[in-house]
Amino acid sequence: MKDFVLPGRDMGTPARQGAPVSLTIDGFAVTVPAGTSVMRAAAEAGIRIPKLCATDSLEPIGACRLCAVEIEGQRGTPTSCTMLVAPGMVVRTQTETLARHRRGVMELTISDHPLDCLTCAANGDCELQDMAGAVGLRDVRYTPGANHFAQRTAEAPNPEWRPKDTSNPYFTYDPAKCIVCMRCVRACEEVQGTFALTIDGSGFASRVVAGQDVSFMESDCVSCGACVQSCPTATLQENSVIEIGTPERSIITTCAYCGVGCSFEAQMRGDTLVRMVPWKEGKANRGHSCVKGRFAWGYAQHQDRILKPMIREAITDPWREVSWDEALAFAAARLTAIRTASGPDALGVITSSRCTNEETYLVQKLARAVFGTNNTDTCARVCHSPTGYGLKQTFGTSAGTQDFDSVEHLDCALVIGANPTDGHPVFASRLRKRLRAGASLIVIDPRRIDLLDTPHMGEGLHLPLRPGTNVAVLTALAHVIVTEGLYDEAFIRARCDWDEFADYMDFAARPENGPEAVAALSGVPAESIRQAARSYAGVPNGAIYYGLGVTEHSQGSTTVMAIANLAMMTGNIGRPGVGVNPLRGQNNVQGSCDMGSFPHELPGYRHVSDPAVRGIFEAAWGVRLSPEPGLRIPNMLDAAVAGQFRAIYIQGEDILQSDPDTRHVAAGLAAMDCVIVHDLFLNETAAYAHVFLPGSTFLEKDGTFTNAERRINRVRRVMAPKNGFADWEVTQLLANAMGGGWAYTHPSEVMDEIAATTPGFAGVNYAMLDARGSVQWPCNDAAPDGSPVMHVDGFVRGKGRFIRTEYIATDERSGPRFPLLLTTGRVLSQYNVGAQTRRTENVAWHAEDVLEIHPHDAEVRGVKQGDFVRLASRVGEISLRADVTEKVAPGVVYTTFHHPGTQANVVTTENSDWATNCPEYKVTAVQVSASNGPSDWQTDYAARISAARRIAPAAE
Amino acid sequence: MSDDKLARMANQIAAFFATQPGTASEGIATHINDNWPGAMRAALLAEIAAGGAGLAPAVIAAAPRLRPPAKAAVRD
Ligand code: SF4
Ligand code: SF4
Ligand code: SF4
Ligand code: FES
Fold this sequence. Notes:
Mean pLDDT of chain A: 89
Number of helices of chain A: 29
Number of strands of chain B: 0
Largest interface: A-B, 35 and 27 residues
Low-confidence stretches of chain A: 1-6
Distance between the termini of chain B: 30 Å
Largest sheet of chain B: none
Structural class of chain A: alpha/beta
Strand content of chain A: 15-25%
Distance between the termini of chain A: 67 Å
Shape of chain B: globular
Largest sheet of chain A: 7 strands, mixed
Order of helices and strands of chain B: HHHH
Number of helices of chain B: 4
Low-confidence stretches of chain B: 72-76
Strand order of the largest sheet of chain A: 13-12-25-24-23-14-15
Shape of chain A: globular
Number of domains of chain B: 1
Oligomer: heterodimer
Structural class of chain B: mainly alpha
Bound molecules: iron/sulfur cluster, FE2/S2 (inorganic) cluster
């Protein structure tokens, strides 16, 4: 019978681990782990016991009693979802008594449920319908009486009836259809960790309410969709299903938003996407999602999408729609002319962390093999380049050490410069679950992030440091660990170079690195630093998670080294529950770095000056490669202003909005003679472009993304590209227009080339990914199944390396003119520069960027909640509304950069990380004052951008 | 690229290696050789040759170890 158990079927209750237990169910012998429910054991044997309140993503509660069974030697009919298996147990799932009992349960349930199945949105996809059929319900003998579904009784309006709640843009709550199974309440608690829903009242009067009986939008709900997914009826239903109908097939693919890399079922009807449902078998998300991946895909069909190529002689001209052939010929001619006149190094590319590995690989190949230059860079420059550098120096590999499942084994989570509930929501839900189970939390961040307010969590410690002092605080933690002897000597002796550690120990122990000294400059009390060091070093498993608050500093790379040092000295490397985990911003930041996007590294992080490595690619590509590192994005812009860099192909990036010091970016772009933008929308950068090549969405192409845990996930085409070509095809067309002679017919061939040239990917191919779902690199002969945890028996570089981390204050200091420090971040509902999320209903949550400011700083400036304020730094100024809140410390202000109208990067400076030039977004000295409206730059910009977006009417 | 930007980048690199054990100029030279394109290295060398005003002494000391730019790659 087992043959019929398909993966993804609802097994009723969660899987357990334990010693095997054998029992018989309906005469079949079954063996399952101890702790398994009878319901799940039956499902393992292929027997589906009727159920309503149980589902395998939630702990059972035994509420509906539909799943009753008989057990030999026991009286009564226990509920199989809560009854655990025992050795030798003999279970019967279908008897006369049980059948009668179940019909009774269903009859009662249905008596308070409308019978409008034919017009119900869940028709065909309703567990209540299924169960009515399964138990043989033929008749409801109750006379119509008190109920929740009729708007009126014969005499008067029904006081129990409530209208639908349509406040959420993506789903509808129709209380008339609720069977009070409490799945939604439990999903919100157990899976999402938000606790937005409760059951109000008891018995017949009980009903599901959001918050204190308010609408979903007014409640704490973050629109993750977990409740909707768990609801067995149409009570909580996606609006897209209400509008379109039920899907008829589904294709597994990967979310294109953040670095968590959630797997989804794209559920389709024809080529219409009906809904995205998180895939239970997805190893990054385990069936959970956030509002972006689950609901915010409407941008793919948005009217703003540009579907035809466009060109123009000068950026002051209006755009002209042309054929693909004409656009490509125009671009190729300009690029070739510039190369002839100024040499290959006058050309360059920017790869995208939003595009697939295959696409990224082709874009850097275009630069190196066709243009003939190593001028390739990626937006990872502006986010995680210090991670690559710092971890390579210390551990020997430019990637995080764990998988996300590792979070289930940690005892102390040290979260530095990250805001997971907004930036990496599904990871945050998984961490919150662990925190509710008793793990402790330490947050090092200037802001009081929401993770610290996790309901029902244990100990939480916040170190609210002054922006720019990460290195000092982390070195102070090391100081406490070495001076109090909390380090793991056995681990260090076995895995690292003891002399290097001894040097680091001397360094860290210096008085200027002590908590008292550091308290003075960071603003974090010495006692908090001590406490944090002791709890991280004192638990069996301490895990570090960090984000852009670590990397986007002048000492970003040093901070990453300090983090690696902490993990090594406490022995927190090389097993589940520990490690150093960078939370990647965009979906494919890891992949774009792996694929050789950086100007000094070929795919697999191998330096361009290494003749052996160049030899591999020269043989594969049939060209000679330059041994000189190329230009980084900021250097490209500098060189452009100086007239040495003249042409750029930018795939899927909006550097004008995302990069610091907007005016400088604009000047660099304006100085170039050929800017090719390849994107979905006429983004801000396109205002400076001569060629616009329309892009395709992740729904329209095949490929792979590599998430923050190094997991290579498949992206699958679910509909044809609206612009005619997937992005990898467009790059190939451009390469061939310049004589590249490429002949890929499918992205799988690109992956085969990657595997053939890059050792960590040697074992990766599409057939294997299709069979296994996903794999974590390195995946090769040494690790055929991939590598969930890295550095298990030793570091990739051999011995782990301790590097001194001396605090060097940034040049960006607050002073009398700019007394406050600005730091930047993002919110849950929006994504990076917002090009996609702003084109969805997600604007309901975040319609504009606001400036968070502490009440004290607001008061002395006469600023009140919601006032327009002027935010000025030494490079520029903008205006936006103030949000007066204690989330930020006095002296610190905070904003997001999701909206082009705000242009937060007009004020950020060109300061950058010493090693990688990752911009210092997280520290800008600013002043805030009252204002009446947009700044001059913002007004001018609005006018300029609309002029630059003009498209000439097509000639008849 | 403007000279003071180059100088600032080089000085930032020097500031890190000054805190490390060993000779700072060696670390500085390796880092710059690995990460800077030929044109930027040439510009830095020219700045040093012109007296190196505004450059940290360790950057100037790194000059002999800085790789001069390779000849432009020839395409077959
Ligand atoms: S959408 Fe998510 S957060 Fe909102 S009520 Fe449902 S489970 Fe809770
Ligand atoms: S809304 Fe759905 S999941 Fe929640 S109690 Fe009602 S029927 Fe159950
Ligand atoms: S945005 Fe991130 S957390 Fe949300 S669904 Fe997509 S991958 Fe998952
Ligand atoms: S499914 Fe077991 S009691 Fe509801």
